[in-house]
Task: structure prediction
Amino acid sequence: MDFRALAFLPILFASLSSGPPAESSGGSPARAAFARFRAMEGEWVGTSTRGWKEKISFRTIAGGSAVLESSFDAHPSETMATLWAMDGERLLLTHYCVSGTQPRLVATAFEDEGRTVTFTFLDGGNLPSRDRGHMDRVVYRFLSADRVESRWAWFQKGEERWMERIELERSGAR
Result:
């Protein structure tokens, strides 16, 4: 075997370990939105319109190919997770909910020069039918580098209703 053909591997692995390249203004709206989620790396506090506070951690994982959010105490002593990742040119969100469902949403709208991103239901795990209660839509508004707002909708038995708005603030910001 001619091993000279493998000479490109160190270059390939070096580029993978540093994650996807930074977005330029010429990137797709989905890739630009993904870059915004990657920039959220760190610790945050969420305050819900339902009256609770939660501790939130954002981590870029898997060689920069995914962003994992872990939230604690939105439901007493429970942790939930949300994962964002690119699938080709689509930005996907999977929410691991205290309800036991794993709805998968796709970014379908980018507004305000990419500062507002809407995700809508695509499919999901542990959902024998779409009528089983699950998070069905979420809108993220990037207000600044240290402030983000999300608005979540619940779907059950053929009806969608807005459940809550969560204001996220980076810990230590002000």
Observations:
- Residues 100 and 167 are 24 Å apart (CA to CA).
- Helices lie at 9-17, 29-38.
